[in-house]
Amino acid sequence: MLRAWMQDSVPPHTEYPERPGRWVAESQWPSPNVTPEHYYLAEQKLVKAPEEEQAIMVTGM
């Protein structure tokens, strides 16, 4: 049901003639190997639990 190309880590470069990696797959989706997790917005980061209630400004670029 899900197939993806996992690229191996390589040093930064402007062009690659070939990117090493491998194919990985899950036979069903959602996969039984995936556990949902919830994250919250905090100042310049995501957190697992809200630290304290605060206003966060989100702006476009």
Main attributes of the structure:
two-stranded antiparallel sheet; 61 residues; single chain; 4 strands; flat; Acyl esterase
Short structural description:
The protein has 61 residues and is mainly beta. It is built from no helices and 4 strands. The model has no long low-confidence stretch (mean pLDDT 89).
Give the arrangement of secondary structure elements.
Blueprint: E1 2-7, E2 21-26, E3 40-42, E4 45-47
Antiparallel strand pairs: 1-2, 3-4
Query: What average pLDDT do the residues reach?
Result: 89
Radius of gyration: 19 Å
Low-confidence stretches: none
- Helical fraction: under 10%
The description of the largest β-sheet is:
2 strands, antiparallel
Query: Which of globular, elongated, flat, extended, rod-shaped describes the shape?
Result: flat
Number of helices: 0
Strand content: 25-35%
Distance between the termini: 35 Å
- Biggest sheet strand order reads 1-2
The structural class is mainly beta
**What is the ordering of alpha helices and beta strands?**
EEEE
Number of strands: 4
Organism: Bacillus capparidis
Protein name: Acyl esterase
